[in-house]
Amino acid sequence: MAVHLHEEDLPEGALAPGPVAVDTETMGLITPRDRLCLVQISDGQGDEHLVRFGPGSEFNAPNLKAVLADPARLKLYHFARFDLAAIEHYLGTCAAPVFCTKIASKLVRTYTDRHGLKDLVRELLGKEVSKQQQSSDWGAAELSDAQKEYAASDVRYLHAMHEILVERLARENRTELAQACFDFLPARARLDLAGWPEHDIFSHEAA
Ligand code: MN
């Protein structure tokens, strides 16, 4: 179990086949303004890979893009909508097919409104993740050990949660509905980038 930091791309062959957990860290919440600093990725075998992009990066990362674009690899996210938009905007890649643990949580954990990663990891796995470094300077020349650990922990539990949430979705007969939501996520991310970030396109309201 180790955290590996790479500059500008993933080394070839770093990941075992199968689903990968993916997360991103950026300079902020406005994707076209706030550059992509880090992509975290894990094959669920115990290691996490952090791919860092410097200021002025050309985001020329063929190995990472190949994994993200691979239609045979399921990508596991927590709040995929944000990560898909950042990856699409900066890496020019549609990182699907998608499973989003936040959407799955909303569809099965209807007894709570706590769908953050921290709450989900605690309830499903009985583990604690710290959110202390969430709003830190991901564009810094050197990432601190606390930042690296935080970034890695954001992808560490997604495989285990995916397994549990798949069972819970089946139990509640919401597998197909979840899949339809996941399939729409790349388009939802594109709507965010194209100027409809908070507008619900399905709403009766004009704007
Ligand atoms: Mn994160």
Describe this structure in words.
The protein has a single domain, classed as Ribonuclease H-like superfamily/Ribonuclease H (Nucleotidyltransferase, domain 5, 2-Layer Sandwich), CATH 3.30.420.10. The protein has 7 helices and 6 strands, in the order E-E-E-E-H-E-H-E-H-H-H-H-H. Helix 2 crosses helix 7 and helix 3 packs parallel to helix 6. The chain is globular, with a radius of gyration of 17 Å. The mean pLDDT is 96. The structure holds manganese (II) ion. Manganese (II) ion (MN) binds next to strand 2. The site of manganese (II) ion (MN) has 3 residues, from strand 2. Keywords: Exonuclease, Hydrolase, Nuclease. GO terms for molecular function: 3'-5' exonuclease activity; nucleic acid binding. One of its GO terms (biological process) is nucleobase-containing compound metabolic process. It comes from Novosphingobium endophyticum.
Q: What attributes does this structure have?
A:
40% helix; Nucleotidyltransferase, domain 5; alpha/beta; 207 residues; single chain; binds manganese (II) ion
Kindly state the number of beta strands: 6
Figure out the total of helices.
7
Low-confidence stretches: none
Oligomer: single chain
CATH fold assignment: Nucleotidyltransferase, domain 5
> What coarse outline follows from CA principal-axis ratios?
globular
Secondary-structure element string: EEEEHEHEHHHHH
CATH C-level category: Alpha Beta
Helix content: 40-55%
CATH architecture: 2-Layer Sandwich
